[in-house]
Amino acid sequence: MHYPDPESYDIAQKIAQYWGIEKDSILIGNGSVELIYLVIHAFKPKIVTIPIPTFSEYERAARIVGSKIQHVKLNRDENFTLTLSEVKGGDITFICNPNNPIGNLILEGSEELYKLPAKIIVIDEAFTDFLSDERNHTLIWKVQKDERIIVLRTFTKFFAIPGLRIGYLVAHPEIVRTLKKYQIPWSVNTLTQLSATSALTESRYIENTRYFIEKQRRFLMGEILKVDGLFPYLSVANFILIRIVDKGITSPYLTERLIQKEILLRDCSNFRGLNEGFTRIAVRCHEENIKLIDSLKEVLWKI
User: Fold this and answer.
1) How many CB atoms lie within 10 A of CB 240?
2) In whole angstroms, what separates CA 174 from the centre of its chain?
3) C-alpha to C-alpha distance for 148 and 172, rounded to whole angstroms
4) Domains (ranges, CATH) in the chain?
5) What is the DSSP letter of 75?
6) Residue-wise pLDDT tens digits, 194-215
7) Position 303 confidence tier, pLDDT thresholds 50, 70, 90
8) Mean pLDDT of the region 102-129
């Protein structure tokens, strides 16, 4: 097998066709995490603004280059929404939209985006694929009008290929050219490039997955609301954040008990801005979702 294409031409061209954008606005990477670190190392920001709770790699990457971190607490009482007036100026602002671990849209449109006081705004859309109307929510088409905007996308979540490691960013061509200077060559192997190119042609899979996730997420939300001691937050992603209330138990304890039933929860106590009262569940097939609900009821009712 020959060396991988260092420009990832075919997959970049496929992405350009998929979104109707220019190929020189696209940069392929070894997962979106590589691109997060690439942005940080290329621009070496003095101040990075991060709403919390959110994905931890933004802060980890920024601290490596010595950036000062400005945290903005999301409003827990309003489904962890972002109050724009609390966002201070900085060199780079990271926005995960939909946000991880909540699953909500913290930016509803470009008007909110343009109000953010930052030299560069990185929008991580790792979970946007799960929205049936994602083209109404993605900010990919805004990069040509605003050179501050960088949009991150990944194949990991929606196409379920985390081991292949491929993601991409969309930005103004000048930004892309700058970032390429810092990127390690041949970072995406040949098999991964071929797999991702094929994935974008699977229109039936894309449609069916969105329908399946939305249907099962609605089912889970309804059932969790019936469980005394649990409060689910609204989500548009393939997971749901849950607050444990009134039972005097913690997320680590609940995680341990459900492991005994061969169910793995995501303990969210290590997310900055959350605590041991938060856990996250994945949206899975109907039978597994029923098993999860029954197991949660059993554990909570025994306390």
Assistant:
1) 21
2) 25
3) 8
4) 9-199 (3.40.640.10), 203-301 (3.90.1150.10)
5) B
6) 999 999 999 999 999 999 999 9
7) low
8) 87
Q: Is 247 left (phi over 0), alpha (psi -120 to 50) or beta?
A: alpha
| Beta strand 118-124 pairing with 239-244 | unpaired
At 109 the pLDDT is 63
* Burial profile 106-125: b = 16 or more Cβ within 10 angstroms, e = fewer: bbeeeeebeebebebbbbbb
Q: Give the whole-number percent of the chain exceeding pLDDT 90.
A: 83
Which has the closest alpha carbon to 50: 82, 3, 23?
82
Instruction: Find, among 287, 285, 281, 268, the residue nearest to 227 by Cα.
Output: 281
Residue 148's CB is within 10 A of a number of other CB atoms, namely 19
Give me the pLDDT at residue 241, please: 98
Contacts 24+ apart (CB under 8 A), 196-205: 196/11, 196/14, 196/155, 196/159, 196/161, 196/164, 196/166, 197/10, 197/11, 197/14, 199/155, 199/159, 199/161, 200/14, 200/15, 200/18, 201/14
- List the one residue out of 40, 24, 4, 38 whose CA is nearest residue 164: 4
> In whole angstroms, what is the distance from residue 206 CA to residue 258 CA?
31
CA dihedral 50, 51, 55, 58 (to 10 degrees): 0
Query: What is residue 169's predicted lDDT score, i.e. its pLDDT?
Result: 98
How many C-beta atoms lie closer than 10 Å to residue 51's C-beta? 26
pLDDT of residue 50: 97
Helical ranges in 55-202 per DSSP H: 57-64, 110-114, 173-180, 190-199
Region 135-153: what's the mean pLDDT? 92
Residue 248, pLDDT score: 82
Q: What is the pTM of this model?
A: 0.95
Round to whole Å and give the CA distance between 76 and 38: 31
The helix/strand/coil state of 245 is coil
**Token pair listed for 83:** 């109050």
